[in-house]
């Protein structure tokens, strides 16, 4: 199998997406629509769990939301007026059905279903402790650690047990939890992963991004605050703040790449921020050229901003096919080589003889950029200048983003000049970390950054317990049996 998008393996993988609704007839159908809107956040698997007031119902499947949750018989089985859902790209644990969320357990207080966006940086240490106490794990996902901590808590009601569990974990989490007592939504005290709250008639909704609210016609109420726990049931909506107050550190890469451009993140348009990034990049790294060409689709808003600020015309020098599946069987090396053009192809008539500025969102391993620059040169480009709408990615993420180990990050091994030579570009420039903050309307506080920018700076906002133990010789990866 070959990924037809030759650039798929050279991106920071999206984390996951969550959606929950309380108080709507046919709640699962709304969750399915919301998950469609969040599909970009996880494309390996999807799941929905509902509660009809007496029983929980669940359907989980590998693959996309479409094809798994667009069948009437599936949605009919997911009965009830409350439901949660999840789209997954695995950051911990193997790609297998047993890891597909929502995870569900029958606890002493009743059913407990959880969908998690993020990653726990002390999951392995907690898992070993729980194993010694007799816990038997059914998955290799860090999310199951939360379930076992809830199950073994000495508190009596579900909300207190969940809060007790979350006080023991480190890292990033946005959770939607479905219980017999109500729908619970919570966000880690640093607010690293996003979570928003909306309303549709009398129903209350939680989602990873506002675009999921738009799709079902719901109105956006507010962000779930960092460290906030909200429970919704027939008695109304109650908010708690059980954690120590901390200065928030939301993930800055949501604005660079992860969120859909039509979402609103932290009160600002993702699309406008990405255009601002492109404009800032143009000011920081100007270049004489004939056309600004985006790498579709994630580079488009930044390329527009670069073009408008620089006055260099914006053109589609790379055309993307939207009709190619994720994989394609390649019978020979010759055909496999041709396969890279199935999804992206140079607009040769435009590019030939021109000086091109290629704008992309990031460089990870560098394999994407090598192919892009060569594609432009093969199409006859006279000069190829690469501009990147994020700082160099030098460090791995441990908060729910699947980044390669540091040794495989190009920027961790080379300086900018070496990277330019490696990708064979005439010039290469990244936006500065200060410029990225300026595009968000802030000045970066170097002593205490306002956002999690660890993938660029190495300044991690939490303790990395499992990483430290790995450095001491203890295993980090969750055991995956295939």
Descriptive key words:
482 residues; alpha+beta; 7-stranded antiparallel β-sheet; 6-stranded antiparallel β-sheet; 17 helices; 23 strands; disordered N terminus; disordered C terminus
Report a brief summary of the structure.
By secondary structure, the protein is α+β, with helices and mostly antiparallel strands.
Low-confidence runs (pLDDT<50, min 5 residues)? 1-8, 326-331, 473-482
DSSP helical segment count: 17
The residue-averaged pLDDT reads: 90
Strand coverage percent:
15-25%
Outline type: globular
Sequence of strands across the biggest β-sheet: 4-3-5-2-11-10-12
Portion of residues within helices = 25-40%
Separation of the first and last Cα atoms = 19 Å
How would you describe this protein?
This protein has about 475 residues and is an alpha+beta fold. About 30% of the residues lie in helices and about 25% in strands. It has 17 helices and 23 strands. Strands 4-3-5-2-11-10-12 form a seven-stranded antiparallel β-sheet. A six-stranded antiparallel β-sheet has the order 6-7-8-9-13-14. Strands 17-21-22-23 form a four-stranded parallel β-sheet, sandwiched between helices. A hairpin with a 2-residue loop joins strand 6 and strand 7. Helix 4 packs across helix 5 (about 160-165), helix 8 (about 270-285) packs across helix 9 (about 300-310) and helix 8 (about 270-285) crosses helix 15. The radius of gyration is 23 Å and the shape is globular. The two termini are about 20 Å apart. About 50% of the residues are buried.
């Amino acid at each position: 199998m070959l990924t037809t998008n030759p650039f798929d393996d050279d991106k920071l993988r999206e984390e996951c997406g969550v959606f929950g609704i309380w108080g709507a007839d046919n709640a699962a159908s709304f969750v399915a629509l919301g998950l469609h809107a969040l599909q970009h956040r996880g494309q390996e698997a999807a799941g929905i769990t509902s509660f009809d007031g007496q029983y929980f119902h669940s359907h989980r499947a590998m693959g996309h939301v479409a094809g798994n949750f667009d069948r009437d018989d599936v949605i009919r089985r997911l009965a009830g007026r409350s439901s949660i859902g999840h789209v997954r790209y695995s950051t911990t644990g193997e790609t297998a059905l047993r890891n597909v969320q929502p995870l569900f357990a029958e606890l002493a207080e009743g059913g407990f279903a959880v969908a998690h966006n993020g990653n726990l940086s002390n999951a392995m240490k907690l898992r070993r402790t729980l194993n010694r106490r007799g816990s038997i794990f059914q998955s290799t996902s860090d999310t199951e650690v939360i379930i076992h901590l809830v199950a073994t808590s000495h508190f009596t009601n579900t909300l207190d047990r969940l809060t007790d569990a979350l006080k023991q974990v480190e890292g990033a989490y946005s959770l939607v939890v479905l219980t017999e007592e109500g729908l619970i939504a919570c966000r880690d005290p640093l607010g690293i992963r996003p979570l928003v709250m909306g309303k549709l008639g009398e129903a209350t909704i939680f989602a990873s991004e506002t675009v999921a609210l738009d799709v079902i016609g719901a109105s956006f109420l507010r962000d779930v605050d960092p460290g906030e726990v909200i429970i919704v049931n027939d008695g109304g909506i109650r908010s708690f703040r059980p954690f120590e107050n901390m200065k928030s550190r939301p993930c800055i890469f949501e604005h660079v790449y992860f969120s859909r451009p039509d979402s609103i993140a932290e009160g600002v348009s993702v699309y406008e921020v990405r255009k601002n990034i492109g404009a800032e990049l143009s000011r920081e790294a100007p270049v004489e050229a004939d056309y600004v060409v985006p790498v579709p689709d994630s580079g488009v808003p930044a390329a527009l901003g670069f073009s408008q600020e620089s006055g260099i015309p914006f053109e589609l020098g790379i055309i993307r096919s939207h009709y190619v599946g994720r994989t394609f069987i390649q019978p020979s090396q010759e055909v496999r080589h041709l396969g890279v053009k199935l999804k992206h192809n140079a607009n040769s008539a435009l590019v030939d003889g021109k000086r091109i500025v290629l704008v992309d969102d990031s460089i990870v391993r560098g394999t994407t950029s090598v192919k892009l620059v060569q594609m432009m040169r093969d199409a006859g480009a006279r000069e190829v200048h690469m501009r990147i709408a994020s700082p160099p990615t030098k460090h791995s993420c441990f908060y729910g983003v699947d980044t390669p180990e540091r040794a495989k990050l190009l920027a961790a091994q080379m300086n900018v000049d070496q990277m330019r030579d490696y990708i064979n570009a005439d010039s290469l420039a990244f936006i500065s970390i200060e410029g990225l903050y300026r595009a968000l309307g802030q000045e970066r506080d170097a002593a205490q950054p306002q956002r999690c920018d660890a993938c660029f700076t190495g300044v991690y906002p939490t303790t990395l317990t499992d990483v430290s133990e790995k450095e001491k010789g203890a295993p980090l990866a969750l055991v995956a049996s295939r």
